[in-house]
């Protein structure tokens, strides 16, 4: 994903990349989404469907529900991952958004992810074309409707099949940073990995550069969304 969107700074938008595999530490989870089935010394509190399914801030499973570990990991190990990777990432993201709001009066976060092709199996209704891009705004809670429409339109104009909020409406990042009433908007973008990757070998396919060039035009449009809303363009971060 960092390679697909690495042109963002050319269009004036800072690009923030996750520095570790999501199977190691999930930046799209809250720091307190700790899984008692994986981490020693963690007490179960309430019902969190993400944690219960093994997808807490330190994931217990990967695609298909396959276990990552043979047993539990220590609380210290989990806390070290959070301290060393999760917190620096979110501290930097908060600074970028604060700077954008201070400079332009508004900030837009485009939170980009790849989704397994199989994630859409069974999620779509019959006779509905399978989406390649899923836009998530937490059903209208994390961003202004006109911004979401412009993001969706940018991907559609580039030739992608786009859906909204199904099956991914946005997780921790959009929930935590999406504050449209405070002129801070957060939109999640999920891209089907099968467009550019062999999911079995985890290697780029021959289509990778084509998709990358196509996304360059999309990124240019995303970075320019602020035109017409405020006098200067807001910054976007990923």
Helix content: 25-40%
Q: Major β-sheet, in short?
A: 5 strands, mixed
Reading the helices and strands in chain order gives HEEHEEHEHEEEHE
Give the CATH level 1 class.
Alpha Beta
CATH superfamily: Zn-dependent exopeptidases
Tell me what the structure shows.
It is a single chain. 29% of the residues lie in helices and 15% in strands. By secondary structure, it is α/β, with parallel strands linked by helices. The strands form three sheets. A five-stranded mixed sheet has the order 5-4-6-3-9. Strand 4, helix 3 (145-157) and strand 5 (162-164) form a beta-alpha-beta unit. Helix 3 (145-157) packs antiparallel against helix 5.
């Amino acid at each position: 994903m960092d390679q697909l969107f690495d042109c963002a700074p050319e269009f004036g938008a800072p690009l923030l990349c996750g520095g570790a595999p999501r199977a190691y530490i999930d930046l799209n989870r809250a720091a307190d989404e700790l899984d008692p089935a994986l981490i020693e010394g963690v007490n179960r509190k309430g019902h969190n469907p993400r944690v219960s399914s093994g997808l807490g801030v330190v994931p217990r499973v990967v695609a298909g529900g396959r276990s990552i570990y043979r047993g539990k990991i220590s609380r210290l190990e989990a806390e070290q991952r959070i301290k060393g990777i999760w917190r620096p990432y979110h501290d930097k993201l908060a600074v970028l958004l604060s700077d954008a709001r201070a400079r332009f009066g508004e900030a837009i976060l485009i939170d980009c992810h790849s989704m397994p092709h199989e994630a859409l199996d069974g999620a779509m209704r019959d006779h509905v074309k399978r989406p390649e891009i899923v836009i998530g705004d937490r059903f209208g809670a994390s961003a202004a409707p006109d911004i979401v429409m412009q993001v969706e339109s940018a991907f559609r104009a580039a030739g992608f099949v786009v859906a909204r909020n199904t099956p991914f409406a946005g997780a921790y990042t959009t929930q935590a940073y999406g504050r449209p009433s405070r002129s801070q908007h957060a939109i999640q973008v999920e891209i089907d990995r099968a467009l550019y990757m062999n999911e079995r070998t985890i290697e780029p396919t021959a289509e990778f550069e084509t998709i990358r060039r196509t996304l360059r035009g999309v990124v240019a449009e995303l970075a320019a969304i602020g035109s017409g809303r405020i006098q200067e363009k807001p910054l976007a971060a990923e």
